[in-house]
Amino acid sequence: MKRSLLPWLIVAAILLLLFPAVAEKFYLQLVTKIMILSIFALSLDLLVGYTGLVSLGHAAYFGIAAYTYALVSPAADPANVWLTLPLALAASAAAALLVGALVLRTSGVYFIMVTLAFAQMAYYFFHDTRIAGGSDGIYVNTRPDALLPGVDLANDLHFYYFVLAALAIVFALLAIILRSPFGRALQGIKANEHRMRALGFATLRYKLAAFVLAGTIAGLAGYLAAAKEGYVNPEMMAWHQSGTVLMMLILGGMGTLLGAVLGAFSYVLLQEWFSALTKHWQLLMGMFIVAAVLLLPQGLIGLHQLRMKPRLPRAEDERD
Amino acid sequence: MEWLIQILNSVQYGLLLFLVASGLTLIFGIMGVINLAHGSFYMIGAYLAFTLSSLTGSLWLAIPLGIVVSAALGLVLEWALISRLYRRDHLYQVLLTFGLILVFEELRSIIVGDDVHSVAIPAALAASLPLTDTLSYPVYRLFISAVCLALAALMYVTIQKTRFGMMIRAAASNPEMATSLGLDIRWIHALVFAAGVALAAFAGMIAAPVSSVFPGMGSQVLIVCFVIVVIGGIGSLKGALIAALLIGFADTFGKVLFPDYASIAVYLLMAVVLLFRPLGLFGRA
Fold this sequence. Notes:
Chain A is mainly α. Chain A has helices at residues 2-22, 25-51, 59-72, 81-103, 108-128, 156-179, 181-191, 193-198, 203-229, 239-252, 257-277, 281-295, 299-308, 315-319, and strands spanning 138-139, 231-232.
């Protein structure tokens, strides 16, 4: 299964590398946005798909890094990426550590509700107080500066490759982590937490580490989103955002890294298509989500598995 | 005296939230379904009150009609979609009901539009009780509190003292055993879900005159109700009642004392409860 996806991964990487050669400005920006959301979906996949923790408040960490970037950026000059990015990631990581320590005391359906509630708390904090522009949000007038020779992030093409590099790094990092003993332990926790504890794993620490790591990567996506748009507002951490990224994951197929990316691409393209059809695109999206849950339990990646299945001999076939 | 008004407001808000949260906690406790669309039913109730009372000219006619419509909606939804979720992971329940929210919000936007509406308080309850020379308290708010208390009592009696309540408890604690003893679990599930929908919609209907009717009202209530269910303990009606009142006080007094941070007060309360009782005040593992 893993090996059979590798060619697709290579094809996807080549397509993304070559895409700017043929793309118009609109599509370049669209794919940049999708790649940022792919990073976001990958971070949630670590929690939902690999550790079995269904978080419905993941947008909080996306938003906290975005706000940190907006708040520490100088008013007129471009911010230094290598100064603001670590700060933004640290803010998301710290928030995830604090919230994680509380929410991981619960499990199952409590966990879903409590992660949602804490994300709403962050939402209202930025929405109701004057700290960062309230419900209006704040503008960041210039893209940050990466201080690399020949790289100008204000240029959409350069920014595209900067985001692609970030996506590749996150993808590779997660692939390595998931194959490490730490990643194996997370997958063990998803399969059977009691057994892992009986084997001597301090599962709470593993889950907390996964929660913080996922929050930090979501922060990276939030930082890139804020840098791209030059604008942050509380809606970035609204619970619709958390629900949307969860839907991307399910659509693509959770528990596979490629599925998370595929999900982000198909969700956003679907949304673009629906909103071109009607201004009431949310109705179509809602019906699509309902249908997808009922008809596509394994996500789009599952279609690939479906096609692979007949090659394996099954017990019933042998009995015939 | 101003404090008395705030206390009465807290109780009224808390009891209203209890009506919505009780449906949420019952649906989870009995069917094991986490229903994000529950806030939408509150929103639908409020819009039904607005639409039906403008059509019929009276909130008293709109409310029974609205209850019938919302209960029917509940039965149809349970039959068509929710019943397919009973054996599925919570994740899929979250997503399907999230999809339903988008559908309901957009249908609301298509049918009624995105404007904020107000619903008139019925003439019979439009008066205010004078408390001092300058302060008075609206009778309609006292009416809301009284109706909610009566419904809470009715729910308690139905579940604890009647034969139907016994069936519900049996279905909740051991569905297989209940089925093998001849109970039709599917009907119990359908009725409980419809009752939960009707309760949430009813709360929206009676709240419409005091809270006005606006697009985001469903998700606002949903998330507060999640906090209530978490604080009270999932599946516990007693917990939901106590937690709803706590939230009513935290929110109302938060708004008076720290206006900027009031919306956070509710979540801080939840964080404190989680620190000491991860399963809520009356939750069982």
